[in-house]
Amino acid sequence: MFHLASVQTADKNHSSQRHALRSQRTRELLLDHMYRLALEKGYEGITVQQLLDSTGVARSTFYAHFRDKEDLIVAGYEAIGIPSTKVTEVDGDRRVLLDVSAWLFSATERHAALTTAFFSGPGQNVILAHLENILIIQVREHYRKQGLYQVDQLRGEAAVRCFVGALVGLWLWWVRHDYPNPAREMTETFDSLMNNGTWPPENSVRQ
């Protein structure tokens, strides 16, 4: 039997998929041109109008996706993906850790010139606030899955804020000092202190 409702539902789903694909392509186009302009003239020198002129994207389309250029940069961080987890043992206990430090340091190292451009002017505070919020959400959700976070308890939120605060603080020092150490070393050092509770790393202790 021919079902008109089924056809209408299929058409609606197909249309939704096409819209999502167009939106994704628009976001990628805007991000690509944002990165190019940032490398050419620095992040502070970029205006939304310049982005529109270089991409051909309509102003209404831009604001349908983003509030401002800082919101566009946040989309770039979100596109990196979600940090993976890893299993380790601390004092004989098995722990599932969110590998968020490797996620942040490695991605930054791959796009060091862009990161420097984004954090070289007054707009850095807006971008940093967005990035910090992304990290807080990721870490809080991981703690919740591991049974380490309760909404009505201060300890869980304090743990999230302390972890993210330490990570962002070290990361900012690294960026502002022009990446003096490799991302892998930064990750291992941070994890040794924050996840394993040991400092300094065992293999760096001098006899």
Relevant terms:
single chain; 207 residues; mainly alpha; Arc Repressor Mutant, subunit A; 2 domains; two-stranded antiparallel sheet; 67% helix; globular
Report what the structure shows.
The structure is a single chain. This protein is mostly helical. It folds into two domains: 4-66, Arc Repressor Mutant, subunit A; 85-204, no CATH class. Helix content is 67%, strand content 6%. It contains nine helices and two strands. A two-stranded antiparallel sheet has the order 1-2. Helix 1 crosses helix 4. It is globular.
Describe how the helices and strands are arranged:
Blueprint: H1 4-41, H2 48-55, H3 59-65, H4 69-78, E1 85-90, E2 93-98, H5 100-110, H6 112-118, H7 124-145, H8 154-176, H9 183-194
Antiparallel strand pairs: 1-2
Organism: Pseudomonas mandelii
Protein name: DNA-binding transcriptional regulator, AcrR family
Pfam family, one: TetR_N
